[in-house]
Amino acid sequence: MVEIKTNESLAAMRESGRVVARALAAVRDKAAPGVRLTELDRAARDVLAGAGAGSPFLGYHPDWAPVPFPAVVCVSVNDAIVHGIPDDTRLAPGDLVSVDCGATLGGWAGDSAVSFTVGPARPEDTRLIAAAEEALEAGIAAAVVGNRVGDIAHAIGRVCRDAGYGIPDGFGGHGIGRAMHEDPGVPNEGRPGRGMRLRHGMVLAIEPMLIGGGTDEHYTARDGWTIRTSDGSRASHAEHTVAITDEGPRVLTAP
């Protein structure tokens, strides 16, 4: 079931989205060579606590996961695509880091992700991150009243494939509102003109994930959470929570 949000609800979701944006900014500011991944999680926790917000990630336990998620951010480094658990690993110069963060405030959720490098970036990483951001922008541009979910999926997939990158099958965006994951699912590749029609008041988390090596193959690491590229190539992830409105797409997790 898809909940159509009122304009008042969209305004409330914008507030949770602002908290997510601040948390991601704090994590990015904290990231440097020698910093532990747990320190990035602590930076995000401090922002959530300061805003009086909760975390939809902390304690989240889907059926496929062996244990509840133990952090408020997913930190996926280098060949990790998504769902990386922050541990005592220290960042190294040149690491490619993808951070996914959520917040709940006033009963509404926000969800966003960003990828960046630690220190000087390799040219191929710069291109990979830029392609994820371009794919996200294309998906957002397609998120207009009257379009369908397939139009978003097609826009994302076209950018990824034209750039020569892989797309991990089975992972993509989702509806969001009172819960972090709601209907409908938003694939990162698909046929235009297919799927649910978009209406004013729908809210979607749009999140392209790209595999640098060009293959779609991936596997789940031994922790039961982290999704890694099968070929060992690097990955990038970009995400925003986006409201579908009669005035056009509204990014609720923008800084």
UniProtKB/TrEMBL annotation:
Residues noted as binding substrate in the record, renumbered to the chain: 83, 181
Residues that coordinate or bind a divalent metal cation 2: 111, 174, 207, 239
Superkingdom of the organism of origin: Bacteria
Chain residues that bind a divalent metal cation 1: 100, 111, 239
Needed co-factor(s): Co(2+); Zn(2+); Mn(2+); Fe(2+)
Keyword list, A-Z: Aminopeptidase, Hydrolase, Metal-binding, Protease
MF term (GO), any: initiator methionyl aminopeptidase activity
Ubl conjugation listed as a keyword: no
All residue ranges annotated as the Peptidase M24 domain in the record: 12-246
Catalytic activity: Release of N-terminal amino acids, preferentially methionine, from peptides and arylamides
Annotated Pfam families: Peptidase_M24
EC number from the UniProt entry: 3.4.11.18
Cofactor-binding details, from the entry: Binds 2 divalent metal cations per subunit. Has a high-affinity and a low affinity metal-binding site. The true nature of the physiological cofactor is under debate. The enzyme is active with cobalt, zinc, manganese or divalent iron ions. Most likely, methionine aminopeptidases function as mononuclear Fe(2+)-metalloproteases under physiological conditions, and the catalytically relevant metal-binding site has been assigned to the histidine-containing high-affinity site.
Subunit relationships: Monomer.
The family this protein is said to belong to: Belongs to the peptidase M24A family. Methionine aminopeptidase type 1 subfamily.
Purpose of the protein: Removes the N-terminal methionine from nascent proteins. The N-terminal methionine is often cleaved when the second residue in the primary sequence is small and uncharged (Met-Ala-, Cys, Gly, Pro, Ser, Thr, or Val). Requires deformylation of the N(alpha)-formylated initiator methionine before it can be hydrolyzed.
Record-given protein name: Methionine aminopeptidase
